[in-house]
């Protein structure tokens, strides 16, 4: 059954949102899709909380704000992507649940799909994350191969604070402009679930896949080269050990992105141009991408000593404040008497 089949008269008259009656053969398997999206939405919600915490840690400590510009940029992308995953999941759960209940599906156009908030957020995250990862690999390689240039022209300079983030955001903006141009210039009836390919076409979907694969793999190559170069230099230059420690978590982020993002995108490309992959392989692959957006906090916690110390200190401060407040109040909410005042009160009332 063709779900996007409708009259040209209805389409041209502006009736872009219509429901079409379907039978059980179409809704078969929707229960499994609901379960899949419940899992993915839950992972996205956890990732959103983790990235919000990470943003608070980065922005709440001035040395981190100046030192970890690219990590903050990556964190912004992860946070946006995590929120998009939650909104996407809620949208799909409602869509499939309604279809099962009413035996109808909406007929959508590419423009209607393109202006969905969750799809716009997903588009931003899909581009900003790999671009940020790419710049991280470039930065580490430049820092090791050209240390003098990096020290005097990059580190602490406008190139790092403004130029690189600016170029990244400009690339995201231009990509989104192209996507909307494609959606509006070729407005047509499309799939009811409104994915990227449905809204912007297969060509733009391929661009997103290739962008993720290329940026993540390139970052891994750059970070690996920088790591072994720094490791070799550290044998004769002890101060280079600090660079080795920094590159270690940059490299791990690049490797995880390659495994958890580039691999699923490769599978998606294979499905698009070669042959459909079974759900038992493709669905967990999308979960891997969601996990990747929430895992960076734990990478920093494990491999960045300064970040770990700052995080523990922050939690200790919050815990100390809670303990201080609890000591100042009695169980019924009244202020606890100062030390020694209880004895004085007893003496006066005795």
Automatic annotation (TrEMBL):
Start and end residues of each stretch annotated as Disordered: 326-350
Chain ranges passing through the membrane: 38-61, 68-87, 127-150, 162-184, 204-228, 249-274, 286-303
CDD domains attached to this UniProt entry: 7tm_classA_rhodopsin-like
InterPro entries for the chain: 7TM_GPCR_Srsx, 7TM_GPCR_Srsx_nematod
Entry keyword Protein transport: no
Record's keyword terms, sorted: Membrane, Transmembrane, Transmembrane helix
Keyword Membrane in record: yes
Designated name of the protein: G_PROTEIN_RECEP_F1_2 domain-containing protein
Source organism of this protein record: Caenorhabditis elegans
Lineage: Eukaryota, Metazoa, Ecdysozoa, Nematoda, Chromadorea
This protein's encoding gene: srsy-2
């Amino acid at each position: 059954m063709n779900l996007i089949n409708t009259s040209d008269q209805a389409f041209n008259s502006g009736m872009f949102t219509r429901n079409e009656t379907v039978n059980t053969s179409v809704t078969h398997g929707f229960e499994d899709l609901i379960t899949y999206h419940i899992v993915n939405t839950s992972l996205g919600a956890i990732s959103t909380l983790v990235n919000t915490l990470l943003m608070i840690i980065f922005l709440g400590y001035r040395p981190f704000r100046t030192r970890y510009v690219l990590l903050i940029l990556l964190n912004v992308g992860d946070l946006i992507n995590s929120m998009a995953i939650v909104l996407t999941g809620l949208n799909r759960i409602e869509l499939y649940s309604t279809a099962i209940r009413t035996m109808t599906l909406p007929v959508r156009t590419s423009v209607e799909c393109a202006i969905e908030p969750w799809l716009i957020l997903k588009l931003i995250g899909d581009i900003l994350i790999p671009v940020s990862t790419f710049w991280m690999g470039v930065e580490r390689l430049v820092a090791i191969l050209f240390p003098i240039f990096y020290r005097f022209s990059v580190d602490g300079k406008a190139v790092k604070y403004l130029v690189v983030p600016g170029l990244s955001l400009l690339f995201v903006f231009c990509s989104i402009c192209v996507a909307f141009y494609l959606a509006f210039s070729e407005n047509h009836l499309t799939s009811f679930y409104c994915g990227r390919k449905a809204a912007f076409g297969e060509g733009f979907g391929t661009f997103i896949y290739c962008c993720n694969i290329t940026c993540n793999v390139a970052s891994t190559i750059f970070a690996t080269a920088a790591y072994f170069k720094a490791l070799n230099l550290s044998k004769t230059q002890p101060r280079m050990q600090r660079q080795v420690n920094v590159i270690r978590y940059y490299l791990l982020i690049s490797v995880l992105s390659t495994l958890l993002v580039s691999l699923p995108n490769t599978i998606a490309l294979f499905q698009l141009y070669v042959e459909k992959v079974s759900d038992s392989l493709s669905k967990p692959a999308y979960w891997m991408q969601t996990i990747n957006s929430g895992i960076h906090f734990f990478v920093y916690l494990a491999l960045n000593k300064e970040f770990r110390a700052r995080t523990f200190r922050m939690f200790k401060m919050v815990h100390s404040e809670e303990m201080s407040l609890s000591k100042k109040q009695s169980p019924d909410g009244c202020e606890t008497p100062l030390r020694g005042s209880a004895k004085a009160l007893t003496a006066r009332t005795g």
